[in-house]
Write a structure and sequence with these properties.
Blueprint: H1 2-7, H2 11-28, E1 37-42, H3 44-47, E2 56-62, H4 70-87, E3 90-96, E4 103-108, E5 114-119, H5 122-135, H6 139-154, H7 167-179, H8 190-193, H9 202-214, H10 225-237, E6 248-250, E7 255-257, E8 274-277, E9 280-284, H11 291-309, H12 317-325, H13 342-372
Parallel strand pairs: 2-5, 6-8
Antiparallel strand pairs: 1-2, 3-4, 4-5, 6-7, 8-9
Domain Poly(A) RNA polymerase mitochondrial-like central palm: 4-131
GO molecular function, one term: nucleotidyltransferase activity
Region (Disordered): 347-373
């Protein structure tokens, strides 16, 4: 709990993102092709799950709902690209013509925050808003998601561009973990989303959530955030060998799935990891993960669980926090060996000291015998 509080973004982190949105709003007013569009944040900032170093996801939404062609979206992003370069204040500006969603990426030169801009990304805005409502059902959910995201960032497994997990998939893993506790802390999302999916409105979710809250759903489970943090890694490290067999995380039903219960189209795509999108069951939220990066992800889960379950780890509490969360978050990435990740080095460091501790009584006994002789 204390760790989660100390890693929380500050008021300045919030104001920095608001400042970027304000300056972008001012910028697009001067661009003809952007007339009739409004700046809308989405992702972790809208869900209130952002970390101090998290990216800022932005989309340009038409003030009057109307379909925009891919060529139109690309033209808009190119115009903003040119305007950013001319105005200054942005570095590493580039447009990515991705198959799914064209994207403009840049880093704000003042606040050093990475930003991704898309156009008319309605579903993403909706999912972000709905996710914020769902995780608000239990305070432990928001805290656990935050800790897991900080951990994943420190272990370099929270970057879909590098073949690892995106923040949305990480959030769904946490929700699934809370759904599968005994007793459950969160209900299957089908009970909240219903069959409306992304077409339902916010009031629909609020009413469903209010019903569960009034019934005291999840209150019967008294596990602390710390206990849930440990069991989270235990649950997913235990199934490491099953991902290749098609094991799937299904928060819509709140239970494990497989190739027979998920979208049949997935079978031909050879996904390494399956995390079903509860708002669109045809979408795999972890599609960015490939076989090579999956090994890295699984190893991070496994070593973290071993560390958390080893009582000797807590002798090095400062190192443990530093390694798990890059503690404090402004410090350089920890590494005990230049060629291997910090978490692996700490695991070996703890094991070595534990073995020395266990050997010490035997040596002391031998020493006493020699003195008597």
């Amino acid at each position: 709990m204390a760790t989660a509080n100390q890693l929380q973004p500050t008021q300045q982190d919030f104001e920095a993102r608001v400042d970027i949105l304000r300056r972008l709003e001012f910028l697009i007013r001067e661009i003809d092709v952007c007339k009739g569009l409004a700046i809308k944040p989405f992702g972790s900032f809208l869900s209130n799950l952002y970390t101090p170093w998290g990216d800022l996801d932005i989309t340009l939404m038409p003030l009057e709902p109307a379909p925009l062609s891919r060529s139109k979206k690309t033209k808009i992003l190119k115009s903003i690209h040119d305007a950013l370069l001319q105005a200054g204040g942005a570095i590493r500006v580039q447009v990515l013509f991705r198959p799914r969603v064209p994207l403009l990426m840049f880093e704000d030169a003042w606040w050093r925050i990475s930003c991704d801009i898309s156009v008319s990304n309605t579903d993403a805005v909706f999912k972000s808003h709905a996710l914020g409502l769902i995780v608000g059902m239990d305070l432990r959910c928001r805290q656990l998601i935050f800790l897991v995201k900080c951990w994943a960032k420190a272990q370099c497994i929270n970057d879909p561009k590098m073949g690892t997990l995106n923040s949305y998939a990480l959030s769904l893993l946490v929700i699934f973990h809370l759904q599968t506790r005994n007793p459950p802390i969160l209900p299957p999302l089908s009970a909240i989303i219903g069959q409306g999916g992304a077409s339902a409105d916010g009031f629909h979710y609020l009413n469903r959530i209010a019903e569960f809250t009034e019934r005291g759903f999840g209150k019967g489970n008294t596990s602390s955030v710390a206990e849930l943090f440990v069991s989270f890694f235990g649950q997913f490290s235990a199934v490491e060998e099953l991902w290749i067999q098609g094991l799937a995380v299904c928060t819509f039903r709140g239970q494990w799935g497989d190739k027979t219960t998920t979208d049949p189209a997935w079978a031909s795509k050879n996904y390494a990891l399956l995390v079903e999108d509860p708002f669109d069951l045809s979408e795999n939220c972890s599609r960015s993960v490939h076989q090579g990066s999956l090994q890295h992800v699984c190893k991070a889960f496994r070593l973290t669980h071993e560390l958390l379950c080893d009582k000797f780890s807590y002798w090095f509490l400062g190192k443990l926090k530093e390694t798990l969360f890059r503690w404090p978050h402004a410090s350089p990435r920890p590494c005990f060996h230049p060629s291997r990740p910090g978490i692996e080095q700490l695991r070996e460091h703890v094991s070595l000291n534990a073995s020395r501790k266990n050997d010490r009584p035997e040596k002391q006994k031998k020493g006493k015998k020699q003195v008597k002789q």
